[in-house]
Design goal:
Elements (H helix, E strand, L loop, with lengths): L2 H20 L19 E3 L6 E3 L4 E3 L2 E3 L2 H5 L1
Antiparallel strand pairs: 1-2, 3-4
The protein binds zinc ion.
């Protein structure tokens, strides 16, 4: 086997792995808008309208609430 074939083989493997790595992980419905939220992002309380960070927010049935009072109200 000539060295050129080894180089070409390595290049093909490299390109292959780069494509695999860059492939989006979202296999479930690309048409659906899927926003990724961070813990620091602000969300609005569904009940009182207060803005709280996602870290503090209480999530219930897809809605965010600032506190247990709003969640249970
Ligand atoms: Zn609230």
């Amino acid at each position: 086997m000539s060295p050129q074939w080894i180089v070409i083989g390595v290049l093909i493997a490299l390109v292959y792995f780069i494509f695999i790595k860059n492939k989006p992980l979202s296999n479930q419905g690309s048409s659906k808008k899927d926003e990724k939220l961070n813990d620091d992002d602000m969300v609005e309380c569904k009940k009182c309208g207060t803005y709280i960070t996602l870290n503090e927010a209480k999530l219930s049935e897809g809605q965010y609430f600032c506190s247990d009072e709003c969640l249970n109200a």
